[in-house]
Amino acid sequence: MMMMGDTFGxxxxxxxxxxxxxxxxxxxxxxxxxxxxxxxxxSSFQQLCFAQSxxxxxxxxxxxxxxxxxxxxxxxxxxxxxxxxxxxxGSKATDKxxxxxxxxxxxxxxxxxxxxxxxxxxxxxxANVWWEIVTSSDGERSFKLTFHxxxxxxxxxxxxxxxxxxxxxxxxxxxxxxxFTNNPSSQWVYGQNMxxxxxxxxxxxxxxxxxxxxxxxxxxSDLVAFSNGKEYYKKIxxxxxxxxxxxxxPGTGKSTMISAxxxxxxxxxxxxELTAIKDNSELRKLLTATSSKSIVVIExxxxxxxxxxNRIKKDRNTRGQxxxxxxxxxxxxxxxxxxxxxxxxxxxxxxxxxxxFTTNHLEKxxxxxxxxxxxxxxxxxxxxxxxxxxxxxxxxxxxxDHPLFGKIESLLKEIEISPADVAExxxxxxxxxxxxxxxxxxxxxxxxxxxxxxxxxxxxxxxNNKFSFF
Length: 470
Prior knowledge:
Blueprint: H1 2-9, H2 11-28, H3 31-62, E1 65-71, E2 73-74, E3 77-78, H4 80-90, E4 100-103, E5 112-115, E6 119-124, E7 127-135, E8 141-148, H5 152-173, E9 178-182, E10 195-199, H6 213-227, H7 230-236, E11 241-247, H8 254-265, E12 268-271, H9 280-288, E13 294-298, H10 301-304, H11 311-322, H12 335-343, E14 353-359, H13 367-370, E15 377-380, H14 386-397, H15 405-414, H16 419-426, H17 435-467
Parallel strand pairs: 9-12, 11-14, 11-15, 12-13, 13-14
Antiparallel strand pairs: 1-8, 2-3, 4-5, 6-7, 7-8, 9-10
Helix pairs in contact: 1-3, 2-3, 4-5, 14-16, 15-17
């Protein structure tokens, strides 16, 4: 068998020789000789291809082994079986392996040892199988599973499912939330490398979030209902997704809210940068490559691309694009393209997905983008209230009450200040917690802001009085 395989394996080099000979003939022989020789070489080439085909069929017919390939991606969608197999094989015992790979991503983490072998042998109910990671010429990875034909039913009906389920269980036990961001399409390779990620370690939680307790309770209850709503969404005939619009002035905690949501649900975050996407087609490919149990985030959506309500300008730009006037560096992601993914046909491509938009200027967004049913829950993150301040005082100063709280409460009712500004004044200086000093710093900052606001209001009144004489 091996001798026959070696014999037919030389066919490829024979074909290469034919092409070399033809190139040489082109330079030496006259035209009438070239035609005759060309016909002869073509006939020989056809015979070689036929022999190669016969060899392949012959080898496959007599080979007792079966192969199954599991590619990393299926079109532009992730093949979850691939990642589950990778996790399963990585968890196999390392005490018998002769080739190991050690990694320590962070200094405070233990050294992790994994198998570093091209082939891994596994055994299941007496049947031997071999796994091999294969990389094609175009860079696409796949796992190749090889086993004897007599174990076909056992492997296809039971073993493969066992490996996938075990891999998912292992991944669930050690799951680390990840933060993804999209790569430019020039870096994509056959549907892969669209996203890059790092481990997400933001410590935000709803307990430490500076927000009124009643509003936090409303949000967490909604998140729990969504995560447990698979059967409910199926019953009502809607895609299992939910939209949240976070709006408010800068520094009011919109990004922190997203981090708290991800930690609360243990969902991955996909931070979508619209300006790096060329068109709606790329947008669909990116979004369909996201996993379930994820939060797709577009921060400052009013600044990302032109998704405002200026329809006339959009129409004019569309006509310009048709006439070849579009700037090659300018994104052509449209409002309709984004809406189609949020609640159109493409919204069903993926389960248990949350979409979050943030903006500092709600009035700039097209009403079609944020209507109920697309952005199901509108959450206003506003200036710091007394309840939010008490949470910050607990976080930064480990303080539940203080005689100065009353004065701070009255000042917060008079002026508008973001939770981020309040937190900055409460932070310990030189790593030393001085409760009275921190609270007095905050009071001084609030009083200074109040005085500036009063001076500005007085100036406005004088201007109005001045113009009222005319």
